[in-house]
Amino acid sequence: MVRSSDRGVTFNSMTRAATRVTLSEIADVAHEHGVPLFVDNTFATPALCRPFEHGADLVWESTTKWIHGSGTTVGGVLLDSGEFPWSEYPEKYPEIGGPNPAFGGVNFAERFGERAFVLAARHRAARVLGDGQTPFDAWATLEGLKTLGLRMERHCENALAVAEFLADHPEVAWVTYPGLPDHETHERATEYLDDFGGMVAFGLEDGYEAGKRLCEAVELATFLANIGDARTLLIHPASTTHAQLSEAEQRASGVFPDLLRLSVGIEDVEDVIADLDRGIERATAPAGEGGGA
Do the beta carbons of residue 108 and residue 84 sit within 8 Å? Predict the structure, then answer.
C-alpha cells in the first residue's frame, strides 16, 4: 500500500531470500500515487533484467557483486530513466522539482530536465559526503563489466544444475530458484528475466544446526557473506548476518532458521555439486560419524 506521505516505492527485481520477481504491476501502483519506482537490480544485473523497460524510474546496481565479479572493490551505479515528472511535485521533491535552497535556488528539473535526479544526487553526495571510487577501483570495475554477459551465462547455467540437484536430494527440505518449473514465480520471471540468476536458497531437513554445519563442511564453496563472486559462496544467515535479530524478527525479514543462501559461481558445476553433496553428507551424518554433536 502506498501512503500519501510516501516519497517513493523501492523494490528488488529479485529478492535475496525468496527470489520473487515482479515489476510492472508495482510501477503502475507507484505512478498512480505520483511517486517513482526505485529498483535494486543487483541480483538480476543488467545482463538479465532491464527495469526501465518495465516502468522503473530509478535503478540501483551494486557493482561490488556480479558486475565486478571478484568481490574486491566496493561501488554502485545510480541510473535515472528521465521519465518521472519531478516538476509536477515540487512540494514532495523540493530538492529536484522546486528551488533547491542548498544550491542557490536552482530548480534541477527545469535546468537539467531528464538528468535532474542524477545530477542532484551527484552534487549532494560530492559536496556533502565527498563520495567517489578510487580510480583503480573504478578501472577494475570496468574491466569486470567487459565479461559480465559471459559470466552471467555460466552463473545461470550452474545455478539451475545445482538447484535441480538439491531438489532431488533426500536431505534437502526445500529449494527456491525461479528457474525451476515448479517455482511459484517461474512464469512471471520469464517475462522480466533473460535467465534466472545465480542465487539459490534452500534448507536442510535437519534445520538450523545442519545449516550451520554445512557452511563449515564445504571445501570448494567459500563460507562468506558476499554474493556475486566468480567463486561459489555459501552462508547461513540466521546464525551469521541476522544473528543479532530474534527468530521472529528474522522471519519477518524473510530469514528462516534453516535458510541457506548459495551464490553459485562459475567453477565446473560438477565440482560444485560434488562439494555440496559431500558437505551435506557430513552436515547431516549422525554424531560420531562425521556429523554434528
Answer: no
Query: Are 196 and 189 within 8 A, CB to CB?
Result: yes
Question: DSSP character for 65?
Answer: I
Q: What is the pLDDT of residues 106-125, one digit of tens each?
A: 999 999 999 999 999 988 88
149-284 CATH pick, 1.10.260.40, 3.40.50.300, 3.30.1360.40, 3.90.1150.10: 3.90.1150.10
- What CATH number belongs to 9-143? 3.40.640.10
What is the reported pTM? 0.88
Which three three-digit cell numbers place residue 251? 522471519
What is the per-residue pLDDT for 291?
Answer: 57
Q: Is the pLDDT of residue 293 over 60?
A: no
Output the DSSP codes for 203-239: EETTHHHHHHHHHHH-SSSEE-S--S-SS-EEE-GGG
Of all residues in the chain, the percent with pLDDT exceeding 70 is 95
The residue extents of the domains of the chain are 9-143, 149-284
The total number of residues shown for the chain amounts to: 293
The alpha-carbon radius of gyration of the chain (Å, integer) is 21
Residues 6+ apart with CB under 8 A from 168: none
pLDDT, tens digit, 9 for 90 and up, residues 31-78: 999 999 999 999 999 999 999 999 999 999 999 999 999 989 999 999
User: Beta strand 37-40 with 58-62: parallel, antiparallel or unpaired?
Assistant: parallel
The answer to whether 230 touches 220, Cβ cutoff 8 Å, is: no
SS3 percent helix, strand, coil of the chain, rounded to 5, is 45, 15, 40
- CA separation for the pair 271, 266 (Å, rounded): 10
Cell readout for 155 is 552463473
